[in-house]
């Protein structure tokens, strides 16, 4: 059943891997058996429903978001000289192997 479906629709599908909790797996298997639908088909349908509910981001929304984060770390002391900040973070880690 699965391989014939995949072969028939191979150009439309892209393989991905997800981790589900045991409860999600069990419930998904239960719904799959009850609906005579594959777990993959149910997941694709759920993803489609989720994506349909998401607002479309316009280019002005993206621009506003980026403008809001410009200079976010400007006042942070570590940003005055990032190389010094990195050396300080690594100092304790590499102190035991210093020449």
Kindly describe this structure.
With 99 residues, the chain is mostly helical. 61% of the residues lie in helices and 0% in strands. The chain is built from 5 helices and no strands. The chain has helices at 2-8, 22-35, 39-53, 59-69, 82-94. The longest helix has 15 residues, at 39-53. The termini are far apart. The mean pLDDT is 83.
Overall helicity? 55-70%
Major sheet description: none
Sheet/helix structural class: mainly alpha
- Secondary structure tally: strands: 0
In round numbers, the mean pLDDT is 83
Overall geometry comes to: elongated
What's the helix-strand series? HHHHH
**Number of H/I helices:** 5
- Low-confidence region ranges: none
* Terminal Cα span: 64 Å
- What is the gyration radius calculated from CA atoms? 25 Å
Residue fraction in strands: under 5%
Core attributes:
single chain, 99 residues, mainly alpha, 5 helices, 61% helix, 0% strand, elongated
Task: Briefly characterize the structure.
By secondary structure, the protein is mainly α.
What topology does this entry show?
Blueprint: H1 2-8, H2 22-35, H3 39-53, H4 59-69, H5 82-94
